[in-house]
Write a structure and sequence with these properties.
single chain; 11% helix; 41% strand; mainly beta; Porin; 3 helices; elongated
Length: 266
């Protein structure tokens, strides 16, 4: 699967860079914060907890249409103990995960960007595309949770372990400002709607783990006793399997424009 993903992005990147000498393109760096919305943080689309940073390449087909490739590294986390929802405090689960993302996105600028005209240097933009990302949920002590099968993954009669590499659909809004014909500033708020419900290692129900191969599985699957509450019985709800997890980035960045001498600036 990973080879197919790499092949897809290799083809997309080659399309972007073909005839680059006849187009204006940009290289940039950005930094900001990463956030997560899922079973441990269900209602806050603006909860950013940890740093994120990355680099990007843009190809501007014209002043309004752009194709972008970006690599982003960030971290997300959540802790039931800090919730104001009684059921989550009782559940007492927590996680943290590094997110590494490769994304290809189309950007539409609302206004034409022209560094030589004062009234055309600024534009809001919308962006959408496809992302592939890697994650690896861990407990606060660094214990990797996916190999434990905390919801019975891998046991007889249960699903296989979930994949740590998945796809997502990125949607975002941003602002661009051209300082001059070479340097550009931008900011972006982007949400990734994923095809997994396990970024936080939580999705469905507590299961019978008597046949689990690791003694750690029970410990990390049900952490209510650590908070002084009774253990959960198999069949009790552990997460909300109706909704997949979402992660997001809020970043600011700077980009340098390269322009072929054979092609005039926009």
């Amino acid at each position: 699967m990973l080879k197919k993903i790499v092949a897809v992005f290799t083809v997309l990147f080659s399309v972007i860079t073909t005839n680059a000498s006849a187009q204006k393109y940009e290289l940039g760096l950005f930094a900001g914060a990463a956030g997560y919305k899922g079973d441990l943080s269900q209602f806050n689309y603006f909860r950013f907890t940890d740093p994120a940073f990355g680099l990007m390449f843009r190809k501007n087909f014209n002043p309004r249409n752009t194709l972008k490739v970006a690599l982003t590294h960030g971290k997300v986390q959540a802790n039931d103990a800090t919730s104001d929802i009684p059921d989550q405090i009782y559940r007492n689960l927590r996680f943290e995960s590094i997110i590494n993302e490769l994304t290809v996105q189309y950007e539409f600028n609302f206004f034409s960007l022209n560094p030589y005209k004062e009234d055309e240097r600024f534009s809001p933009y919308l962006t959408a595309g496809i992302s592939v990302f890697n994650f690896d949920p861990k407990a606060e002590d660094g214990q990797a949770l996916q190999p434990l099968g905390t919801e019975g993954q891998g046991l007889n009669g249960n699903p296989s372990p979930y994949h740590l590499t998945e796809f997502a659909v990125p949607l975002g809004f941003g602002l661009k400002f051209r300082m001059n014909d070479r340097w550009n500033l931008f900011s972006e708020l982007g949400y990734r709607f994923t095809f997994t419900d396990y970024i936080d290692d939580v999705s469905g129900y507590y299961v019978n783990l008597n046949s689990a191969p690791s003694t750690l599985t029970k410990l990390y699957a049900d952490r209510s006793p650590e908070a002084g509450y009774p253990a959960n019985i198999p069949g009790n709800q552990r997460g909300d399997l109706r909704k997949n997890d979402t992660y997001m980035f809020a970043v600011v960045g700077i980009a340098f424009s390269f322009v072929s001498s054979r092609c005039p600036t926009f």
